[in-house]
Amino acid sequence: MRALELGAEAIELDVHATKDGTVVVHHDPIVNAPGLPPRPIAELSVAELRDFRLEQNVEVPTLAAVLEAVGGDVTVYVEIKAPSIEPLVVRIIREHEANCAVHSFDHRIVKTVKSIFPAVRTGVLEVARHVDPIASLIATGAQDLWQEVSFIDEDLVARAHSINARVIAWTADDAN
Question: I need a labelling partner for 131 at 20 to 30 A (CA). Which of 22, 30, 69, 171 fits?
């Protein structure tokens, strides 16, 4: 929420799902907590996940709670990190009428999301420069190429723009 207070127009987050189908916001597939052995989120119920507290004793939030908290004034970029949870994620986005876009390293996930929710903006994540970097966009129907920053050049941007796609740089830790 601090980013929104500072004027951020968008946030990016990662999602997984519990074994009982609750989509939660967490970067890693494994959750850790002091005094508890690390456990895969997919093997925990949402009730069991509550025992795993984040910094400052905060629960792992659900995607629904995050969308409710941020409202519709910002774009929420949802990275799906777990397989086979696409229908769960789409349902939550639709229920909240949130301004969301979905992306993933697993391009099959992106294609599935696009097939069940054609109106949602989607993107493919890339960590290498492919010979034909636009092929993944075309194959999945995605509009955004999330490219690791060291592989972005003028040619890549021009090629993406030629099919009305955007290039989104990640992880750009240096302002230059």
Answer: 171
